[in-house]
Amino acid sequence: MADRPRYLFVTGRLAEFALRQVLENLAPKAGFTAEVAVMPITVAALMTPPWIARRLEIPEGIDRIILPGHCSGDLGPVRDRAAGVPVELGPIDLGDLPRHFGEAGRATTDYGAYQIEILAEINHAPRLSTEELLRAAHRFRDEGADLIDLGCDPGTRWVGVGPAVAALRAEGFRVSIDSFNPDEVSDAARAGAELVLSVDATNRERAVDWGIEVVAIPDAPGTLDGLDQTIDFLERSAIPYRIDPVLEPVGFGFAASLGRYLDVRRRFPDAAIMMGVGNLTELTEVDSAGVNALLIGFCEELGIRSVLTTAVINWARSSVAEIDIARRLAHHAVSRRSLPKHVDPRLVMLRDPRINEFGRANLVELQRRIRDPNWRLFAEDGQIHALNNEHLLSEDDPFVIFEQMGVSDASHAFYLGYEMMKARTALTLSKSYRQDQALEWGFLTTPETSHIAREKVSRRRRGPDPAADGTGEASGGGEA
User: What is the pLDDT of residue 108?
Assistant: First the structure.
């Protein structure tokens, strides 16, 4: 123990006992000795660096000082006070301290590489104006798409395909054309399209005139019929190609279609292969993230280096962004031969990867320490818990608990109602609830400006630092 570094954790009175519990388990694992400096304020989130600097006593031999994550502003005053001892912000939620010190979800420094190219299809492109096409393309590129695929309408010729492709190319987009109309494809190729989806026995001979890469598919759905002949023709004509054996929907040969991808890879070990994943994500009534992740894992293992996705139906509208994350996760797992777990949580959207809970005994102790009437909310064990200096209320129905709270101020009632709805949602979906913070929805999370942060701004506008006498209070739980 003597040779371990000593870390000083700064907190408020309310979070002290919970912080000590976390540190009791964490410090031995992470290899440090923990000390806690309890400041004369209930809610740690109300502390500012200048206020801390005026009150912090630093014991001899401290090697590192960790401030609460909510402590915003320039840390200079605390660093000056520390006289050379490193000062840093910890996580906003003290339950995240193990991750902060590398004892949970160890991230790798080289994570993020990928090999799979994303083609994002704009459906019914002929029906859209140039401005609408550009907006859709920009959205897909922002979400991770490498190439914009223009999906044409069968049975008609899009006379404006050339100008549309040219407009996309002018803004730096790579473009593919999804059409079996040879004249439509010719116009797109002349305007700068670089890939044609797709060719088979009906149109492969026209590929000689296009001068760009094509996607070779079988002649008959559910088979590989005609694929060899198309590939032979393309190779004799020196036309670059990639192969798509065609993924089928569940109930229409899904398992067999996966087998065809395996067969094509065995027979053509060096060929470029593409998979269109929309037949599963668009045609299966389930959130698309998990489906995309599994299909991308299959592609990574099999060396399929491009995928075509759509984002039309609502449950699959974020497919491009999902695949962008999934291709990185899959590449990391396959290249390192490690599980795609505890690496990147952004695809865990419905339920959280883990739930931090105080426990009933801790809630009782926390309520005993509260000295003000402001409500702190927690959600765990199937119930919403509301605590202040007089009450510890626990109910599964937010309407019942709100009636028991007896709140009459309209603005505070609005705030508590908003927070309890978040708490009820968290209980329903098995998510972590932290008062004044957004629920986590993976990469779809929308940050919130907390009530505490709003109060800080409001109090600064009204006058001196509210924490100057140590009496500043606010609603909020779980801060370090």
Answer: 52
Nearest to 328 by CA among 288, 358, 299: 299
Q: Which residues have a Cβ under 8 Å from the Cβ of 299 and sit 6 or more positions away?
A: 116, 275, 305, 307, 330
Q: What is the pLDDT of residue 464?
A: 59
Domains of the chain and any CATH numbers:
6-100 (3.40.50), 117-341 (3.20.20.20), 360-469 (no CATH)
Q: Are 327 and 334 in contact (CB under 8 A)?
A: no
374-395 pLDDT, tens per residue?
A: 899 999 999 999 999 999 999 9
- Its sign, for the CA torsion 280, 286, 289, 290, is negative
Residue type, position 222, single letter: G
- Mean pLDDT over 110-131 rounds to 95
Q: Where are the alpha helices (DSSP H) in 105-253?
A: 130-143, 161-170, 182-191, 207-210, 227-236
Token digits of residue 354: 């883990």
pLDDT of residue 357: 81
Q: Which whole-number Å values give the CA distances from 306 to 138, 244, 272, 273, in the listed order? A: 20, 10, 8, 7
Give the number of other CB atoms < 10 A from CB of residue 258.
Answer: 17
Contacts of 232 (CB under 8 A, 6+ apart): none
CA 258, CA 240: separation in Å to the nearest integer? 24
Computed over every residue of the chain, the mean pLDDT equals 90
Q: Which residues contact 36 (CB under 8 A, 6 or more apart)?
A: 8, 9, 10, 11, 16, 19, 20, 23
Q: Judge whether residue 428 has pLDDT over 80.
A: yes
CB–CB of 66/23 below 8 Å? no
Sheet holding 6-11: strands in order across? 33-38, 6-11, 64-67, 87-89
Distance CA 370, CA 378 (A): 14
Q: Most distant CA pair in the chain: distance in Å?
A: 85
- Taking the model in full, what pTM does it have? 0.79
- Model confidence band, residue 169 (pLDDT cutoffs 50, 70, 90): very high
What is the arrangement of strands in the sheet containing 392-395, beginning at the earlier edge strand? 376-380, 383-387, 392-395
- H-type alpha helices, 101-181: 130-143, 161-170
In sign, the C-alpha dihedral spanning 162, 213, 291, 347 is negative
Distance separating alpha carbons of residues 216 and 274, to the nearest angstrom: 9
18-65 confidence digits (pLDDT tens): 888 889 889 998 899 999 999 988 777 778 899 999 999 999 999 999
Of 386, 472, 475, 477, nearest to 48 (Cα)? 472
Following CA atoms 279, 280, 282, 286 in sequence, which dihedral angle do they give, to the nearest 10 degrees? 170
**For residue 450, pLDDT beyond 80:** no
